[in-house]
């Protein structure tokens, strides 16, 4: 007996398969979750990287604009002090580049309201500064250097330039603060990414460990089961031989009992049939006597006597004779089954298709008379079995198919066969009236029939077929629906092995 193991990782085959599927699904979900998380973290990291790069661009743009303002102021003062035209040309270059730098800075900071406000104030101050510078340069160009120097000393450019520098510094401080925040967010996204990878790795490791434990437990349980099964099989063959011998003896006893009972029943039945014949013979003189009495002395013949002699007595004798004939057929059928059970099986290599052709040839007149199309679908695998038994089985099935036709539809009977491993499946199919599914099993019982009883028979044929199939080591079943025909399938071993040989 196989001992049940309580280890949760030792499971049955069905549960083992379900657990493996579950673990695979969990592992797949962990990978999907890790992929989604990694994708999200990567997206966040890319977003933070773009933000950091943007901050650096803004800082650079602020520095560039501030540099242009400072260089422009230095060039103006150099021109004011020396009158050297190179300072004036340099001033014009810095002044010309300043609007573009401010425009670029404005484009970078349009998403930051604080920077936009600071830049708006800065533009006004820078424009005023540039205007004042332009007046100074114009006075020097006109040869009025003293006036230009006086104007420079009295102008508020120093305070304005200080305010511009402070505004640029505020913008730079704001960007440095944003840079610190965005650097921190980028670090968080990187940590989240690695955390997701670590969690996925832990989940996959747990799933792999659980799968490994399950497989190892199942393998151990399988080994124990195999050992127990080997031990069981060592005793099973002996047990099967013993049971087979017991069944064979019981079957022989049943066959002998059926033979004895059937044989003993025939004695009283013969007596009944004999006395029935004498009664039938005595009926004629009585009838003549009544006829003569009616002719010579009608008053002595009563109506009851006349009916008894002319109707009741012949009718009763007919009933007795019909019943005894039916009983005689049943007893003969039982004797036939008993003799078949005692007959020795003689296996030989047989072509079932040839047997079917022989059966069809023996009832060719019946097939032609009823307009039935008969065919054998080849190839049919050969079998090693008893020829007489197979002939009786196919003959019974084919003859039944010729009886139970569907009215108004030409009959079609087909015999086919196929091999399945070490078995051969022979089928006899028809397009007749069919069999109710509720009767698929009972039609193989002795003296049981299905459907309309409009054909001769005692319900013995299919019982005989099943008994022969069992003797040949096979089975018989039917697939049928009313009005759609029937298919009988005979399942036989490719090579018959007697019970005695198996024992």
UniProtKB/TrEMBL annotation:
User: Which Pfam families does the record match to this protein?
Assistant: CHASE3, HATPase_c, HisKA
Alphabetically sorted, this entry's keywords are: Kinase, Membrane, Phosphoprotein, Transferase, Transmembrane, Transmembrane helix
MF (Gene Ontology): phosphorelay response regulator activity; phosphorelay sensor kinase activity; protein kinase activator activity
Q: Does the keyword Amino-acid biosynthesis apply?
A: no
Its GO biological process terms? osmosensory signaling via phosphorelay pathway
> What enzyme class is recorded for this protein?
transferase
Which sequence ranges are marked TM in the entry? Answer: 20-41, 192-216
- The Enzyme Commission number assigned here is 2.7.13.3
Show the PROSITE patterns listed in the entry. HIS_KIN (PS50109)
Lineage, top-rank taxon, reads: Bacteria
What reaction does this enzyme carry out catalytically? ATP + protein L-histidine = ADP + protein N-phospho-L-histidine
Q: Where is the Histidine kinase domain?
A: 260-496
* Name the record gives this protein: histidine kinase
Q: Which organism is it from?
A: Sphingomonas taxi
């Amino acid at each position: 007996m196989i001992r049940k193991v309580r280890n949760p990782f030792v499971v049955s085959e069905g549960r083992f398969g379900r657990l493996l599927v579950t673990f695979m699904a969990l592992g797949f979900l962990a990978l999907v979750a890790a992929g989604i998380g990694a994708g999200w973290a990567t997206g966040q990291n890319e977003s933070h990287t773009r933000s950091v790069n943007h901050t650096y661009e803004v800082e650079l743009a602020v520095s560039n604009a501030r540099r242009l303002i400072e260089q422009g102021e230095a060039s103006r003062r150099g021109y004011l002090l020396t009158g050297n035209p190179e300072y004036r040309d340099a001033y014009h270059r810095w002044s010309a580049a300043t609007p573009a730098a401010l425009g670029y800075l404005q484009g970078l900071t349009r998403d930051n309201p604080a920077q936009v406000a600071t830049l708006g104030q800065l533009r006004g101050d820078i424009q005023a500064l540039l205007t004042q510078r332009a007046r100074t340069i114009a006075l020097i160009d006109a040869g009025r250097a003293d006036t230009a120097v006086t104007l420079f000393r009295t102008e508020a450019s120093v305070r304005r330039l200080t305010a511009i520098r402070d505004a640029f510094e505020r913008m730079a401080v704001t960007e440095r603060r944003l840079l610190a925040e965005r650097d921190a967010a980028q670090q968080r996204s990187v940590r989240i990414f690695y955390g997701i990878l670590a969690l996925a790795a832990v989940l996959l490791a747990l799933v792999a460990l659980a799968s490994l434990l399950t497989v190892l437990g199942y393998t151990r349980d399988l080994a124990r089961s195999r050992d127990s099964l080997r031990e069981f099989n060592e005793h099973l063959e002996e047990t099967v031989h013993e049971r087979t011998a017991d069944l064979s003896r019981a079957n022989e006893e049943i066959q002998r009992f059926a033979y004895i009972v059937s044989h003993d029943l025939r004695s009283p039945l013969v007596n009944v049939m004999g006395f029935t014949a004498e009664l039938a013979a005595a009926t004629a003189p009585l009838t003549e006597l009544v006829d003569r009495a009616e002719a010579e002395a009608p008053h002595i013949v009563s109506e009851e006597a006349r009916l008894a002699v002319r109707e009741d007595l012949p009718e009763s004798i007919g009933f007795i004779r019909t019943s005894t004939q039916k009983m005689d057929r049943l007893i003969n059928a039982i004797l036939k089954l008993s003799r078949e059970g005692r007959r020795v099986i003689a296996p030989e290599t047989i072509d079932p298709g040839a047997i079917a052709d022989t059966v069809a040839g023996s009832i060719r007149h019946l097939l032609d008379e009823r307009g039935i199309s008969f065919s054998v679908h080849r190839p049919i695998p050969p079998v090693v079995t008893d020829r007489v038994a197979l002939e009786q089985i196919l003959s019974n099935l084919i003859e039944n198919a010729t009886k139970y036709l569907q009215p108004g539809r030409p009959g079609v009977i087909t015999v086919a066969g196929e091999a399945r491993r070490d078995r051969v499946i022979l089928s006899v199919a028809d397009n007749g009236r069919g069999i109710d599914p509720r009767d698929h099993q009972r039609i193989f019982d002795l003296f049981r029939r299905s459907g309309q009883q409009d054909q001769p028979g005692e319900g013995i044929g299919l019982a005989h077929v099943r008994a022969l199939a069992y003797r040949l080591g096979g089975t018989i079943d039917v697939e049928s629906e009313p009005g759609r025909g029937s298919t009988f399938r005979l399942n036989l071993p490719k090579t018959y092995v007697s019970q005695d040989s198996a024992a």
